[in-house]
Each structure stands twice: as C-alpha cells, then as structure tokens.
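User: Can you recover a sequence for this backbone? Please restate the input before giving your answer.

Assistant: Of course. Working from this structure:
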C-alpha cells in the first residue's frame, strides 16, 4: 500500500471487472443449496469435487480454526492530490510523529487495457488494539482534521473446513478457503439460516439468502465462518439496484441509478475495506448488496442498456455518491480533506425553482423554518401514489427523534469516550449548503466537546445514527432550567451528497429521462463506457 501509484490488472470474466463482496461473518456452519451444476474448489481454483449436480442441501462447517490478529489505525486526511496531501502531512506530523503518507488505488486495467486512474493519498497515524481505543485518539487531531478508523491484518486466521451433502454421499475437506463455483454465473445459490444479531434489540435473527456467482467461505478474524460473493460488475449491479431501490420503479430511474452506482464501484477500486479479504461490504460504507431472491425485468434492462457506462473526468472515473432522500436540498460533494480542492458536485434545491424563503440554509432562522415546513420538492412524497419501496421513505422527509437527557448523555459517553457531565445544550457551529451540520458543540457541566463531520455527529447522538445531520434541537426543561429531554427535528436521510434516490425516482415518474435526472444532480455529465476505447 505504501510508495508510488500501482498498476492493477483487475480480475475479469468476459471482459468485466470482478468484485468480491463481504456477506456475513461469525457463523459456526452454513447450509446451502445450488440451483444448478457446480464444483467445489480450494483457494487456488483447484477442483476438490467437480461438476456436481445435486438437489440436496449441503453444509460447510469448521473442522478446526485459529483466530487471526488485527490492529486499527486512523486515517487523518485523504486527497486525490499528492501536493495537497504532502502539505497536510506536515501539520499532522506536528500532532503525531507516527503519521505517514500512503497510496491507495492506481492505474486499473482489464485485459491489458487501461480503464481508469484512481490514485488516492491518505495520511495515517497510530496503532491501536481496539476500534474504541482508536476512536478515543480522535481528539488529538481535532478540530483541524476529521479522522476515521481503518484496520490492517497482522496475522491471518487459519483452519480447515469440511463440506458435505445431506446424505454424506459427496464431501470435501480443505485448508482455509472453500469456493462454490457454479458453471453458469446466473445460477442461484441459496444459503439457509444465516444468523445475525441486532445490537439495539439484543436479539438473534436467522435469514435465508440468495446470491449469484461464486460463493467463498473462509475464516473471519475470530476464526469463525464468513462468506464472500464474487461476481462480475454487471451482475453485481443488478443485485445492487434491487437492494438500493426495490421493485416497481421506472426504467429511467433504474438507468440513472445504474450509471451512478457503477461509477461509485469503479472509482473506489482498491480504496475500500482495508484489512479485509474482499473489495466491498454488503451494507454500510459502500453499495448495498442484499441476499433477496428477485426477478425484476426493468432492473435487468437498465443494467444492460447502460452497460459499462460511468462518469468520467479525463481518465478518472468520478465517485458519484447518492443517498436515500435529501429532504429537499442536496449537499456539496465531500471533497477529500475539504481544503485546496474543488467541489465537484454542488448541492442544489431539489425542484424546478428555488423559493425565496430557502435560499441560504446555513442561516439558523432559515434552517428552522425549512425543517418545520414541507415545501414542494421532488423528495416530498405527500399526496403521491407510490410503490411500497417509496412509501417506506415518506417518514424521512421530515422526522423527529426524542431522548431523555440521561439517555443522550450515556450515548455520548459510549460513542465518543467523553464524559461531559450534564448535557445542557447542543450548539450548531457550521452548516453546509443543505443545512446539514458539519460541526456542533456539546455544552456540558464537566466540559464542552466539539464534534466535526456529518457522520460523526449523526453517530454520536443516536443509538445507531440520526437519519441526517440536517436537524435542529429542541429541549424540554425542568423548573431549574436543566434539560429533561432533547428532541431532534430533521430533514432527509443520509449525507445528502449527489443523487437523491427518492427525488430521482419521482422525476422519472414524472417523465424525466435518465440524462435529465443525472444532469439535475451532477450538472455536467461526461458518460462513457469502460468497455470501449
């Protein structure tokens, strides 16, 4: 990862880049069934059992294992400009001498043909045994920088896996990695009873999941079973579109989302999931990739009609973000480091025209009026006839979340590691173009504490995350003027940058084509296929 930019020959199938997507971890065994012919292979691709045709369930289980070891570090700053990153490195080193500059990404090739350059520079610091220890070190670099946590593997987990059918007629044993490889990429693999745990409800859930492509089993860092889906780009996108948007939406909406999602996936090659044996996870930092069984003709058509199409600026594929619902106004693109670099995508009012009442959402009085109103925007779904996938989104156009003061104080202690004592007030310090908060100050009886970055703010003030950082805070006071509870009243869900999925869907429902939708959210659309010279 260190040194100058690298050249990557991306793994490919039929000329398409192949992605590895982390699906789940922490399983003792997994039962699966393949809906077509398949082989069992080891990590090198050598066949263990060839050309299996079976209607039976199979089980893969741990025979023995040893956990691995990982450590955490902070990314203090990131940029696509080496010059800007080197300038910032001097400042970071003054705060922590362990800081160093590392290079991610590089020149990406498919079948010896260069398709993009995505060299990115990150400044890292520290070595921590736990993620919480790394988070507690944030304050050393604040308020100048907005750190985030990454990890690296010090020792790989190891062990042996056993796979066998329900009649124990066929079986295989292998060290470390087992791959289920269907003969046809469209063959479905059903996985039964995958266990997950809900931290908030403190409850186990068990789900049956369906995937296409290669399914790989290996050990997670704890020495338990994890699974990875390995699929070519266009197949990957079909599942991404269904996971991100759901069924029964217009073709032009799916086409616009396909181009945006494909651009994001290709722009982030070798940037994501540091310390993991896959490229992207299935939810969270990157594109959603759920295990639902689906058959949606419009999604298939949208991916096929936009095959390979991405946003380009010269030879760089642009990272085109999107979010669930903007609440009526999108946010400026999150420029790496926020210093010395141009904003690629400017936030804008999500409608034909901008009303005079809401021209400057950095103003606290205007933001308060904005949040307490329901203006005409494409993401305001009131009064519209909607498919279920959009009906569920209505609640995020304007939302409220309420906490007792003690409940919120405990959340802040848990999320930040800071004991501020009695929380008196949450003060907005800086807002972006959409009214989303970039910095707040918590006023406490023991200390005041500042939080920078929209995601950090959303995480610190909720059990999971606040829907967005476009909010105002209303408090209920006791007779002495001490807060009893806090109510967050907000607009939108997500970071607000780039394409508003809800607004784009409504634009398509109103007859806008995919080009018009993309030009609204990204203004300048230089779209080309990665499969053509």
């Amino acid at each position: 990862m260190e040194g100058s930019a690298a050249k990557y020959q991306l793994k490919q199938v039929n000329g398409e880049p192949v992605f590895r997507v982390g699906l789940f971890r922490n399983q003792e065994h997994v039962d699966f069934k393949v809906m077509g012919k398949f082989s069992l292979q080891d990590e090198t691709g050598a066949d263990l059992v060839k050309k299996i045709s079976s209607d039976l369930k199979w089980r893969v289980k741990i025979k023995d294992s040893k956990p691995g070891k990982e450590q955490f570090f902070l990314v203090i700053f990131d940029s696509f400009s080496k010059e800007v990153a080197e300038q910032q490195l001097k400042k970071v080193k003054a705060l922590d001498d362990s800081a160093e500059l590392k290079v991610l990404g590089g020149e990406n090739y498919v079948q010896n043909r260069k398709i993009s350059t995505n060299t990115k520079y990150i400044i890292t610091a520290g070595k921590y045994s736990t993620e919480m220890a790394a988070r507690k070190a944030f304050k050393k670099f604040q308020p100048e920088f907005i750190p985030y946590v990454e990890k690296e593997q010090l020792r790989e987990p190891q062990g042996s896996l056993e796979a066998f059918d329900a009649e124990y007629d066929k079986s295989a044993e292998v060290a470390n990695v087992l791959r289920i490889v269907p003969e046809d990429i469209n063959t479905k693999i059903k996985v039964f009873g995958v266990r997950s745990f809900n931290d908030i409800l403190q409850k186990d859930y068990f789900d049956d999941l369906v995937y296409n492509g290669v399914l790989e089993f290996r050990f997670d860092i704890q020495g338990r079973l994890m699974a990875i889906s390995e699929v070519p780009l266009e197949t990957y996108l079909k599942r991404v579109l269904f996971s991100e948007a759901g069924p029964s939406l217009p073709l032009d909406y799916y086409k616009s989302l396909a181009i945006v999602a494909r651009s994001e996936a290709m722009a982030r090659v070798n940037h994501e999931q540091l310390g993991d044996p896959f490229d992207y996870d299935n939810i969270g930092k990157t594109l959603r990739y759920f295990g639902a069984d689906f058959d949606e003709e419009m999604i298939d058509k949208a991916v096929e009609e936009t095959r390979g199409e991405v946003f380009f600026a010269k030879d760089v594929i642009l990272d085109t973000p999107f979010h669930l619902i903007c609440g009526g106004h999108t946010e400026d693109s999150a420029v790496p480091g926020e210093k010395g670099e141009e904003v690629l995508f400017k936030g804008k009012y999500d409608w034909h025209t901008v009303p005079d009442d809401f021209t400057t959402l950095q103003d606290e009085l205007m933001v308060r009026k904005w949040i307490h109103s329901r203006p005409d925007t494409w993401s305001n779904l009131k009064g519209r006839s909607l498919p279920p996938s959009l009906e569920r989104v209505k609640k995020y156009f304007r939302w409220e979340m309420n906490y007792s003061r003690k409940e919120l104080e405990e959340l802040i202690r848990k999320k930040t590691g800071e004991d501020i004592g009695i929380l008196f007030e949450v003060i907005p310090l800086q807002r972006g173009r959409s009214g989303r908060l970039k910095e707040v100050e918590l006023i406490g009886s023991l200390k005041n504490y500042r939080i920078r970055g929209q995601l950090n703010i959303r995480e610190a003030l909720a059990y999971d995350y606040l829907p967005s950082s476009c909010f105002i805070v209303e408090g209920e006071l006791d007779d002495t003027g001490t807060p009893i509870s806090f109510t967050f009243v907000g607009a939108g869900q997500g970071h607000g940058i780039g394409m508003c999925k809800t607004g784009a869907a409504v634009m398509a429902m109103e007859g806008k084509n995919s080009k018009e939708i993309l030009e609204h959210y990204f203004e300048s659309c230089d779209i080309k296929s990665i499969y053509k010279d």
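That completes the design. Residues 325-497 form one domain.
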